[in-house]
Design a protein that fits this description.
Blueprint (H helix, E strand, L loop, with lengths): L4 H16 L5 H9 L11 H4 L5 E4 L2 E3 L2 H11 L6 E5 L5 H8 L3 E6 L2 H13 L6 E4 L12 E6 L8 H5 L1 E11 L4 E8 L5 E9 L10
Parallel strand pairs: 3-4, 3-6, 4-5, 6-7
Antiparallel strand pairs: 1-2, 7-8, 8-9
Helix pairs in contact: 1-2
The structure holds S-adenosyl-L-homocysteine (SAH).
């Protein structure tokens, strides 16, 4: 598990690329610049790790494109100490970004294989989420609610009601909604029954799957 000078150089180029694409939040850019993305991928090839693209991580899943990770994280507006729920742990890369921002992270993954692998891997890099859960993200995590932010990292055919209800007042839900193509959507909870909705263009994710656990 090496992080060389060359890796660091490639990472700074990646930061420059996503910054040119419109990511402005310095804390998010710093997190991307710090996390050794190549270690989150089986092959570890820097040509794959430090280009702005999604990449297969096994079990038919992908590590999201760095720009997408940065875009979603920026929308979430994480403050230090915020309680954040992530749906779709996958490689744990997005989890690491949230931890770099000082969040208390709870993350749910429905693929056993990925769940086990990432549970072992993250602490090796010094990343300690509050809880990694093997389960169904559609249900959220009622026992730990409310959350200051919820981030869904798979394409949701619809917005699961439990996720809306597990948001704190003032909390933000960032979720790509749609089947083939998803619209990045931000909900801000303004009151018990009041949500503000904002839409941010098209993205493509692997699907949020139902009913496995
Ligand atoms: N955040 C991840 C992205 C992984 S891709 C990363 O940075 O690597 C999306 C992930 O969502 C996959 O690992 C997939 O198994 C998971 N997923 C799909 N449906 C889910 C569900 N209902 N509950 C929890 N996780 C789910």
């Amino acid at each position: 598990m090496k992080d060389t000078f060359k890796h660091k150089g490639m990472r700074q180029q990646l930061v420059a690329t996503i910054s040119e694409k419109g990511i402005r939040d310095e804390r998010v850019l710093a997190a991307i610049g710090k996390i050794p993305r190549h270690l989150f991928m089986d092959s570890g090839f820097i040509d794959h790790a430090y280009v702005d693209k999604a990449f297969p991580i096994g079990a038919d899943q992908t590590i999201s494109q760095p720009y997408t990770v940065a875009f979603q994280t920026e929308l979430l507006q994480v403050e230090k100490g915020d309680k954040i729920l992530e749906i779709g742990t996958g490689s744990g890369y997005q989890t690491a970004v949230l931890l770099e921002l000082g969040a208390k992270v709870y993350s749910i993954e429905r693929q056993k294989e990925l769940f086990k692998k990432t549970s072992k891997f993250l602490p090796k890099l010094g990343y300690r989420p509050k809880k990694l859960i093997f389960g169904d993200g559609y249900k959220g995590l009622p026992e730990e609610a409310p959350f200051d932010g919820i981030i869904v990292t798979a394409g949701a055919p619809f917005v699961p009601k439990p996720l809306m209800s597990q948001l704190a007042i003032g909390g933000r839900l960032v979720i790509p909604v749609g089947d083939e193509v998803q619209i990045m959507t931000l909900f801000i909870r303004k009151g018990e029954k009041e949500f503000e909705k904002h839409e941010f263009g098209e993205f493509r994710f692997v699907p949020l799957l139902e009913n496995k656990n």
